[in-house]
Specification:
Layout lengths: L14 H19 L18 H20 L10 H5 L23 H21 L2 H34 L24 E4 L2 E5 L15 E5 L2 E4 L5 H9 L11 H9 L8 E4 L2 E6 L2 E4 L11 H11 L6 H8 L35 E7 L25 E4 L16 E3 L8 E2 L3 E3 L1
Parallel strand pairs: 8-11
Antiparallel strand pairs: 1-4, 2-3, 4-12, 5-6, 6-7, 8-9, 9-10
Length: 430
């Protein structure tokens, strides 16, 4: 998943509120993991899907490496070996255990990782509370980055364990709760017009942002209409029934090669049974809801679907303009006790799921904004070096913590990625 770096904003960061946020975010991660058994937490079925235990440890190492060492230069690591085992991509802070082999780490045990989390959480709280004000203002931006970083890993924890347990023939339920059946009425397809002109995009100076959302700049947008709702399962079913997965002219060349090599005939997690299509969810195997928002589609599938339907994928800037008309209150996000599955389309709403439910693929290559530059130091590694062979997604998903999203947020994945909650929204030129 994306790990964009912090834009160090000058705004005053309230110490008491941020320490409370730190404790809350840490406990929310542990609550998610608490739904699993230790046996679930160590499996790694593919390089992209890290074990739950690794997520728990890596996010802890981040705070130890980048916050504790900043506030207490005399701090001694909880265990020296953890920097090697739980570093992800930070070349600037030393060697690391290979990503594809994270599932081979049966030790430290889950209980040891949880003890590590508890110790670091308590130490960070204690150190931050005792800091002089000038030192607090110096370290607060890194703490804020750490909170958003952990929220990213909360989403990854959900998507990775879903992929892992989807391979189990028992199709186990991961989280409590049931996916509600959808309404039977078919919502009418509606379009939202975006005005032609030069518009500003990217983050302003008032709030937290990652550096790939900067600098704010202008882009020309032609007259365009964007679908009021994301593509539904019913639309994907129609594509399947019309031979979409067997018709090369709908596909990009690389996408067709991928679909053939992977023998794709339906989205990831779809299963055809004696009673029709089913879908593996975080809440077990459920009947496929026709009006549910389609998810776990690669960008290759998204492009083919859009071409088959006679439309196209929007650009990231078109979706950012659309997001300016929506509210983050109108979406399904990751919250305690929430259903970790996309919502169904609501025909009574003028806009559906611009935020939440699924990350929406765009046709935009993940590249720097004009004037972009990476910050110095290890935390500056994550963005610039990944701006190649990836596409931008917008909007957040049902596994994204609500406080983690905004209209300017740029997620990115390679076009073949399916294990995230990814879907699409159609666009057409006016």
């Amino acid at each position: 998943m994306t790990h964009p770096v912090l834009r160090f904003r000058p705004a005053h960061l309230d110490r008491h509120a941020m320490i409370e946020d730190f404790v809350r975010v840490r406990s929310e991660t542990e609550h998610l993991a608490g739904a699993l058994d230790p046996e679930d937490m160590v499996i790694q079925p593919m390089p992209d899907a890290s074990p739950t235990k690794w997520h728990l440890a890596h996010t802890t190492w981040f705070f130890e490496q980048f916050v504790l060492t900043a506030v207490d230069p005399s701090h001694k690591p909880y265990r020296e070996e953890y920097a090697f085992l739980f570093n992800s991509y930070y070349e600037g802070v030393g060697d690391r255990w290979a990503r594809p082999h994270r599932g081979l780490l049966s030790r430290p045990r889950v209980e040891e990782v949880l003890a590590y989390r508890e110790a670091v959480t308590e130490r960070v709280q204690s150190c931050l509370s005792a800091l002089a004000e000038a030192d607090w203002q110096r370290v607060a931006p890194m703490l804020e980055l750490g909170l958003h970083h952990e929220q990213q890993h909360q989403e990854l924890l959900c998507t990775d364990i879903k992929y892992t347990l989807s391979l189990n023939p028992l199709a186990p339920s991961i989280f409590p709760g049931e996916v509600a059946a959808a309404a039977s009425s078919v919502p009418q397809k509606r379009w939202i017009a975006l005005d032609e002109g030069v518009h500003e995009f990217g983050s302003t100076a008032e709030a937290f942002a990652f550096d790939n959302e900067l600098p704010r700049h202008k882009q020309y947008i032609p007259a365009v209409e964007i679908a009021a709702s994301p593509v539904t399962n019913a639309e994907v079913l129609a594509f399947i029934e019309d031979g979409g997965y067997q018709t090369s002219e709908y596909w990009l060349s690389d996408g067709w090669d991928w679909a053939q090599a992977e023998q794709r005939a339906a989205p990831l997690y779809w299963r055809q049974g004696p009673d029709g299509w089913q879908e593996y969810s975080c809440h077990g195997l459920v009947p496929l809801s026709p009006h549910g928002i389609a998810c776990h589609l690669s960008a290759f599938e998204a492009h083919a679907l859009a071409t088959w339907a006679g439309y196209r994928l929007p650009t990231e800037f078109e979706l950012e303009l659309l997001a300016q008309q929506a509210s983050t209150d109108d979406g399904r996000f990751l919250m305690p006790g929430s259903i970790v599955h996309p919502a169904t389309v609501d025909g009574s709403k003028p806009l559906n799921a611009v935020y939440g439910s699924v990350w929406e693929w765009t046709s935009s290559a993940y590249s720097p904004y004009p004037g972009f530059s990476s910050p110095e130091g290890a935390v500056g590694e994550y963005n610039g070096k990944f701006m190649s062979q990836q596409l931008v997604l917008r909007g957040g998903s049902c596994a994204t913590p609500k406080g983690h999203i905004r209209s300017t947020y740029r997620n990115f994945f390679p076009p073949q990625a399916q294990w995230q909650f990814t879907g699409l929204r159609l666009a057409r030129s006016r």
